[in-house]
Amino acid sequence: MNKIILSLLFTLALLNSAVAAQGNVDAGKVKSAMCAGCHGIDGNSLVPMYPKLAGQNASYLAKQLADFKVGATSGGKDGRNDPIMAGMVMALSAVDMADLAAYFSAQTTTQNATSNKTTSGEKIYLGGDSDRGIPACAGCHGIKGGGMASAGFPALASQNSEYIKNQLMKFRAASRANDKNAMMRHVAAELSDNEIIQLAQHTASLK
User: What pLDDT shows up at residue 22?
Assistant: First the structure.
């Protein structure tokens, strides 16, 4: 009997995980109302310091929401610490997060109106710097910045450059530490302020 109960519980857990992972776009649209102030109704934030969520891969979005919640409940010791997002995610369940991720992922990213593509930023993005142990950003985020959903690497194309710059600064300072195997912290640690700005401008210009 115990084996049957355990088997049923395991099956239910798998089903719940599948539901949470898949997400519901329509439900996410309703729940996204609380996100519109910073990220825009369709996930295309017009505020440079906030990220565009539209078109971002769903698994990455769901992970960030979960990490924000861990950051809030651990006092910033674990997960991703952000005082604004902490208040937004505390009441969210795993299903809520999956629904929101599904909705924003299904939206179309607006292309940035102006292009600030830089040669130095493009050089690091496409080729890295072997002398300093900096891998090419394109290896994980794609030549056109589309990301790699299966590996959890986010899309960067047409993202707000101010947001990208701020995140690279945080990775460099290790104040953001929810990157897989500290990959981004190792990369950002080798970048100068100017290189971070150049990279941010280049990635924002990708389409």
Answer: 87
For tokens 């992970």, the residue is 63
Q: Which CATH architecture has domain 119-205?
A: Orthogonal Bundle (1.10)
pLDDT(18) > 50: no
Q: What is the SS3 assignment for 154-179? A: CCCCCCCHHHHHHHHHHHHHCCCCCC
For the record, the structure tokens of 128 come out as: 């890295």
Structure tokens at 160: 């707000």
In the chain, alpha helices (H): 2-22, 25-31, 36-39, 58-73, 83-89, 94-105, 119-127, 138-141, 161-173, 183-188, 193-205
Domain range list for the chain? 25-106, 119-205
Residues in Cβ contact with 25 at an 8 Å cutoff, skipping those fewer than 6 apart? 99, 102, 103, 106
Contacts of 55 (CB under 8 A, 6+ apart): 43, 104, 105, 107, 108, 109, 155
At 39, which amino acid appears?
Answer: H
